[in-house]
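example protein:
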Amino acid sequence: LHTKTGDRQATLDISELTLQCQNPTQCKGHQETVIHLPALSFNEFEMQNIVAATSADIELIEGILSLRLAQGSRIGADSVNGPDLSLIDANILVQENLSVTIGGQNELALRSDGVELYLPALNTGSNTSQGAFKLSQLEITRPSTDSDFQGTTLLEARNLSSDMLPFVLRKPEFNSTLTLAGQNINAEGILKAADREIFTFQATHSLNTGSGQAQLNLPVQQFGEGPDSLSQLFFSFPYEANVVDGTLEANADIEWRTDENDAMQVSGPLHIAISKLSGFFEDMALLNLTTTINGELSDTVNFVSAPDLHLEIDSFDPGLPIENIKLDYSLNVLTQQVEIKNVSATVFDGTIESSGLVYDWQAAENLFEVEVSRIDLSKVLSLGSYEGIQATGFISGHVPVRIAGSNVSVNEGSLHVEPPGGSIRYQSGTTNSGNPALDLVNQALSNYQYSVMDTNVSYLPNGDLNLGVTLQGQNPDMNQGQKINLNLNVSDNIPTLLQSLQASRNITDALERELKNR
């Protein structure tokens, strides 16, 4: 059977159609048909090349029509295009029998143990997602025209992926129970990846008011090396990073509603607990990060934390070890500020401390002060590739730090040596450079005992560190220990230095050793 409108032609192929009636209100039959529609428009949606292949038993008894679709029946379309999305090669497949019953007062009953929706390509803007969704134990009823729908089903999803996300989960599985009662939808579900439970929820939503609430939970994630690491949850983890030890858990009780502009507003408390989390990002290692974040989410994107949250890190190593890091902090997305205070850490057996700052990421610049205490100069020099030089002494001082965007700089920082001073032993490799002044300095530094070391510190946004050093001391091997005052300028590029230090190690091996030595 063919019908034609304009340049569009619809085709109905009937391979079997039987109908036996005892009277006009009592009939039974069977049909096997294939319907092809080149195009169909519905509201703002346009569907192309629709094919429905069905096998069904039909029954009409006293005005009640029953249709029982057999396994293998399907409805598919090459494309479904709407204002905000499009589907390519979408298919609905009946895996278990699907029955539809329509009564005389427009009563409706729909039941099935298996209906699957295949979405190999769901396009929203420039992004593409895909997945397969199965409905089982499906039961939907509407007693009469004036009655609300009632229903329940189990929803399973697999093969989920989207290029809106920078990663693809390994073996994603989603299972949910959905219940429709009048104008209320209730749902609870579990998301798994790599056979690990990573997300659970319970939610309810009112179709009348557009409001609802949910309990969201990230169960305790225990990380370890190898198959227990964070990267094993993903195919081709897009970052040169991993978490290989520690635990992470989170939960939230959120509510949502639509405001006067029909925009969705979400609010509620949020809790995140991180304990002894260890891992790496590129060539930077992190050992034992512990913190708890409590706060309130409001107006969807605004988060305000509780005051004086505490964070501790045993070690952060971007190329040089920074240990025993401790600080208090709070977050306020509404004002776009982070308050950090009571900062302390151990570096080269000394300490760095700061009262902190209120960092405003809308401000042109943010300033804070760092106090340096008893940095071991010998450990500083042992870290870098400064050949032929040894030094002792403990350095303290004051460093003002300026942050402008992603640029960090220091201007007019000052460092000094703690009494009684220290020593410098420098072997230049030559005793006659042709420059008498330089030779004199090299000779003085071959065994220089100093009591004063004052240093002006400048750190430029490009990473250049410039030190202007004033020394007062003597070399007991020169001129009967005559006093010698020296002015030195020392320069180095810190990012380049850190890169060279990072290149000399394998970050995963180094982190593994640290974890075993805890």
Summary: The longest strand covers residues 241-258. Residues 494-503 form the longest helix (10 residues). The chain has a mean pLDDT of 88. The chain has four helices and 34 strands.
